[in-house]
Design brief:
- By secondary structure, this protein is mainly α.
- Among the domains are: about 60 residues, no CATH class; about 110 residues, Orthogonal Bundle (Cytochrome Bc1 Complex, Chain D, domain 2), CATH 1.10.760.
- The chain is built from 12 helices and 3 strands.
- A 3-stranded mixed sheet has the order 1-3-2.
- Helix 4 packs across helix 6 and helix 9 runs antiparallel to helix 11.
- It starts with a strand and ends in an 11-residue tail after the last helix.
- The N terminus is likely disordered.
Length: about 270
């Protein structure tokens, strides 16, 4: 075990491949909300780690990524913060790109940046592959009152888009079942409405959470009205999660150009 301590600090935790458990203690900058998040993270992690320090910790990916599952885990989903999305079963290429974006500052969220700093691309790929191979977590569809006009609007955007406004259908990229497309496109189902609307907001404002680099959704989100975003988010959050991501397909030239932050990588054997 390796332990680095700075006075008056909170903690971030992550398993390092081949090096056992690594603790890095730092005081977070920013609001008290960040401090609270760090406190929750250290308390939860240490609660299950320290009672077993006398025993050897299995050197498995399932053990190494336990800090991830504190926020993104399957258990007690209803009690977890709605801004923490599911990651089990998402395409490996998408997860890898998001991990790199957090690590390299292209997508900003301080707890994620600290957890991932100094991790190699190879190790991030191991993490991405691990989560992509897990079963989808249970998701209780949200119940939202939607008028018939809202439903029609949502389904128009999701399955047809508005070509005259250069807004493609969601299903063109995210698959006909909306469960994503291997390897780079994530699914849209199994996510809370609050999370979805927050992501649209960040894309529209080029906010730090989604980064200020070219993104697949930023141009599209800026063309949508508040009414359209709310209708799509409510419709998606109310759907049953079923199926798996669509099989691998080559990125269309338009998508490849729009998504300049996507990196084409080979699936590691």
């Amino acid at each position: 075990m390796h332990l680095q301590v700075q006075a008056d600090s909170y903690a971030s935790i992550f398993y390092k491949s081949g090096h056992g458990l690594s603790f890095v203690l730092r005081k977070p900058s920013g609001s008290s909300k960040a401090g609270m998040m760090y406190s929750i993270l250290i308390v939860c992690a240490l609660s299950f780690l320290f009672p077993n320090l006398a025993d050897a910790v299995p050197d498995t990916m399932a053990e190494r990524v336990k800090p991830c599952t504190i926020c993104h885990g399957k258990e007690d989903r209803a009690e977890q913060h709605v801004y923490y999305p599911r990651i089990d079963g998402k395409p490996w290429g998408y997860l890898f790109n998001q991990l790199r974006n957090f690590r390299d500052g292209r997508r900003h969220y301080q707890p994620m940046a600290i957890l991932l700093e100094n991790m190699s691309d190879g190790y991030l790929m191991e993490i991405a592959r691990y989560f992509s191979e897990l079963d989808l977590p249970d998701f209780q569809p949200e119940r939202h009152m939607m008028q018939s006009g809202e439903i029609d609007l949502a389904e128009q955007l999701i399955y047809s888009g508005y070509p005259d406004r250069n807004i493609p259908a969601c299903s063109n990229c995210h698959g006909q079942t909306l469960m994503g497309t291997i390897p780079f496109i994530p699914g849209l189902l199994g996510l809370p409405r609050t999370y979805l609307t927050a992501q649209f907001g960040s894309w529209r404002s080029s906010g730090l959470v989604r980064g200020q680099v070219s993104d697949c959704m930023s141009e599209i989100a800026k063309k949508l009205t508040d009414q359209e975003i709310n209708a799509v988010a409510k419709w998606l959050a109310a759907q049953i999660v079923n199926g798996k991501p669509d099989p691998s397909v080559a990125l269309l030239p338009e998508l490849a150009q729009r998504c300049s932050s996507i990196v084409k990588v080979e699936y590691p054997e």
